[in-house]
Amino acid sequence: MTVEAASLKVVKPAGGPKRSERSALASVGLHGALIVASLIAVFPVFWVLVTSFKPDAKAVETTPKLVNDSSLDNYARILSGEKGDFLAWFGNSVLIALLTTVLAVFLSATTGYAASRFRFPGKRSLMLSFLVVQMFPFAVLIVPLYNILLALGLQGTSLGLVLVYCTTAVPFCTYMLKGYFDTIPNDIDEAGRVDGLSPFGVFWRLVLPLARPGLAVTAFYAFLTAWGEVAFASAFLSAADESKTLAVGLQVFVQQNRTEWGHLAAASILVAIPAIIVFYLVQRFLVTGLSSGAVKG
């Protein structure tokens, strides 16, 4: 091929729609599909909200009557302690979820940073083991974890349950943070060492502030792991009513012969509020943290 032929520019026809343009019919169809999908996703939550204002006898009606049946009796009975010690359950859940979040994020951040910056024997095997752990159903871990907590004297305690939640949250969070730390240039670490910072000082004062989106994602995941979990909380906490978490306490509304749907729906709405608040606080970091953490493995 000659230089003249190689320098020729291909002239595209001026007519015809561009690839980035979308026809009006396609745009209407796309927006219509999104609206339908949104309604399908929101409708169950709306129905639970409507049911939470209705008495148990009318909660199973297929046609909601908001004007005639609406009341705050379900919420009043739950918060007053008439239907279980809800405030104690709430306090237990908040304590366990916060401890799990702080401990899991700290362990995941330190482990992910070490796997990202340092070379040591067994590094690849360690990261692979984090993925393998996620393949097993959590129910399989109940018996061995129960025996471990029993040997440590932590069975039936909140601290024992926090450690159990960390065993499920730390592997996933570590792998995600390791990928996020890989996107932070090593020059920042070297500049910190030149200024006299220790390896931990570089991690704590320079790297962590840059990793806030990744930390927000892992913190949100760790919080949800502890907030809505039922199986581990039922197996590892004391059967006493004041020791239950919210997810376990909701079982009091499901009895053998009847289900208190109105009270159960009201309690479910109350349980969802803290998770919504946490999501609102970290939502601006979620997209950045998820996309950056997936760049490198």
Automatic annotation (TrEMBL):
Organism: Saccharothrix hoggarensis
Cited InterPro entries: BP-dep_ABC_trans_perm, MetI-like, MetI-like_sf
Protein name: Sugar ABC transporter permease
Keywords from the UniProt entry: Cell membrane, Membrane, Sugar transport, Transmembrane, Transmembrane helix, Transport
Residues in ABC transmembrane type-1 domain copies: 90-282
SUPFAM superfamilies recorded: MetI-like
Membrane-related topology note: Multi-pass membrane protein
Main location: membrane
Family annotation (Gene3D superfamilies): MetI-like
Pfam entry (one): BPD_transp_1
Spans traversing the lipid bilayer: 28-50, 86-114, 126-146, 158-177, 215-240, 260-282
PROSITE patterns: ABC_TM1
Family (UniProt): Belongs to the binding-protein-dependent transport system permease family. MalFG subfamily.
Subcellular location: Cell membrane
CDD domains registered for this protein in UniProt: TM_PBP2
PANTHER family per UniProt: MALTOSE TRANSPORT SYSTEM PERMEASE-RELATED, MALTOSE_MALTODEXTRIN TRANSPORT SYSTEM PERMEASE PROTEIN MALG
